Amino acid sequence: MSRIGKLPIEVPKGVKVTVADSVITAEGPKGKLVQDYRPEVTIAVADNTVTVTRKDDSKPARAFHGLYRQLVQNMVIGVSSGFTKKLIINGVGYRAEVKGKILYLNLGFSTQIEFMIPSDVEITCENPSTVVVSGTSKQRVGQVSSEIRSLRTPEPYKGKGIRYSDEVIRRKVGKSGGKK
Fold first, then answer.
1. How far is it, in rounded angstroms, from Cα 104 to Cα 17?
2. What per-residue confidence (pLDDT) applies to 174?
3. What is the pLDDT of residue 177?
4. CATH, domain range 9-80
5. Rounded Cα gap, residues 27 and 150, in angstroms
6. Which ranges of the chain have pLDDT less than 50?
7. Can you tell me the distance from the alpha carbon of 94 to that of 127, in angstroms, rounded to the nearest whole number?
């Protein structure tokens, strides 16, 4: 039995979960998320609990069991409290700024980078060296964060670039002072 798949999902107050025609919908204070699911699993909503069960013990059904349970869990968390990822910009003269629906990044290139902010994600700058990406969908928040990070990945010698706040950059030693 799947250890993750068998766990019930508690639905907090203010969140409404509905299942119809192999589509699950979660609505809450932060927004609405929709996810379709495969016929190998069955999703049932009772009281304030969502349970995911599989139809048989085939390998695909076992794989989808834990997957869809976690996807529904992420939907419930997303519409109730949302997801955030913090990016740290490290480097002399490197900075970020949000104006309207565009994120402007100075990352040591000859030109300023303009990153269009998607409509389903919110991006704010706490200070010029910190970018916060937030939204209801965990997948979209992670995808947009990854796209921003890929504009200037951190290098191992000085650590310059864009990194996640919880990421640890393995530093390398530079050239030695001189040969003897």
1. 38
2. 84
3. 55
4. 3.90.930.12
5. 32
6. 178
7. 12
Whole-Å CA distances, 74 to 79, 81, 127:
9, 10, 29
pLDDT confidence of residue 43: 94
In the chain, where are the structural domains located?
9-80, 83-164
User: What residues contact 75, with CB distance under 8 A and at least 6 apart?
Assistant: 17, 24, 26, 33, 35
CATH 3.40.50.720 fits 83-164, yes or no: no
Q: Which two tokens stand for residue 48?
A: 């304030």
Helical H runs in the chain? 59-80, 138-149
For 19-27, which contacts have Cβ atoms below 8 Å and span 24 or more sequence positions? Answer: 19/43, 19/44, 19/45, 24/72, 24/75, 26/72, 26/75, 26/76, 26/78, 26/79, 27/79
pLDDT of residue 180: 55
- For residue range 111-150, list pLDDT tens digits in order: 999 999 999 999 999 999 999 999 999 999 999 999 999 9
CA atoms within 13 A on the CB side of 176: 3
